[in-house]
């Protein structure tokens, strides 16, 4: 048996999230991938992912690991697996790793992007790949709020109640926003993210940018850990898991660009 680390890209539109949900027929990334591995290798192959993306969330660099006795050479594994996968999920890279490697626990950080169409104009082509936010944004306020969120903080105010995590302290190495025409792209790199934390951050940045919140208010909300006092939870379709970082330094150069 050998352990493989596989990097995936998927369109989350028609997936009910990453994780399999027992007792349901919901289509999930994990379920589809495991079914495809059975067709490829003839064996049940449980997988472990670096993160559990929600329904509708996309990935350009999701990472999974699994054990396999397949004799397919690692350099041909992605091509063989892609022949069994549906069009909305593909394997980009496969490497053989040490048995100690764990897709989630070995990760040192993640990078997310969120894409916003900031216009009152209708949107058809990109409706499943961005969030249309029709209110004017002051990018100076957005960037000031982003600076408040950068660094190590207790992000309890940006988490969903009922989470089982032991600590809500996370370190965001960078929180950036850039605008080109009607498009705004948010980029966040951190050592970890709480459930729906990225979408709550984006909602807060948007509400700050349109004047519903001030950067000072966001700082107080962050310091007091008051859930429900910040911005709204931005919808999933604008969110992309771009990169999972590991100590081995492997980087797959893929990203979501402003159209």
Automatic annotation (TrEMBL):
Keywords: Isomerase, tRNA processing. Signal peptide: none annotated. It comes from the Bacteria. SUPFAM superfamilies: Pseudouridine synthase (SSF55120). It catalyses: uridine(38/39/40) in tRNA = pseudouridine(38/39/40) in tRNA. It is an enzyme of class 5 (isomerase). Pfam families: PseudoU_synth_1 (PF01416). Substrate binds at residue 112. GO terms for molecular function: RNA binding; tRNA pseudouridine(38-40) synthase activity. Residues 9-103, 146-246 form the Pseudouridine synthase I TruA alpha/beta domain. One of its GO terms (biological process) is tRNA pseudouridine synthesis. InterPro entries: PsdUridine_synth_cat_dom_sf, PsdUridine_synth_TruA, PsdUridine_synth_TruA_a/b_dom, PsdUridine_synth_TruA_C, TruA/RsuA/RluB/E/F_N. Homodimer. Belongs to the tRNA pseudouridine synthase TruA family. This is tRNA pseudouridine synthase A. It comes from Syntrophaceticus schinkii. The gene is truA.
């Amino acid at each position: 048996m050998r352990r493989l680390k596989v990097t995936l890209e998927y369109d989350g539109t028609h997936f009910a999230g990453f994780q399999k949900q027992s007792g349901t027929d919901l289509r999930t990334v994990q379920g589809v991938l495991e079914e495809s591995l059975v067709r490829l290798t003839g064996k049940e192959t449980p997988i472990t992912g670096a993160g559990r993306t929600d329904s509708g969330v996309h990935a350009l660099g999701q990472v999974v690991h699994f054990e396999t006795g397949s004799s397919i050479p690692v350099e041909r594994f992605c091509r063989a697996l892609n022949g069994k996968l549906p069009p909305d999920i593909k394997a980009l890279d496969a490497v053989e790793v040490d048995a100690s490697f764990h897709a989630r626990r070995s990760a040192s950080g993640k990078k997310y992007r969120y894409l916003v169409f900031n216009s009152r104009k209708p949107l058809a082509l990109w409706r499943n790949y961005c969030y249309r936010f029709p209110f004017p944004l002051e990018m100076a306020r957005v960037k000031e709020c982003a600076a408040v969120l950068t660094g190590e903080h207790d992000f309890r105010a940006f988490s969903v109640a009922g989470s089982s995590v032991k600590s809500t302290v996370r370190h965001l190495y960078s929180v950036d926003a850039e605008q080109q025409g009607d498009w705004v792209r948010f980029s966040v790199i951190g050592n970890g993210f709480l459930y729906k934390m990225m979408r709550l951050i984006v909602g807060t940045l948007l509400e700050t940018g349109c004047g519903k919140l001030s950067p000072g208010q966001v700082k107080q909300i962050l310091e007091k850990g008051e859930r429900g006092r910040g911005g709204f939870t931005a919808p999933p379709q604008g969110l992309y898991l771009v990169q999972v970082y590991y100590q081995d330094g492997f980087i797959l150069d893929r990203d979501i660009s402003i159209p």
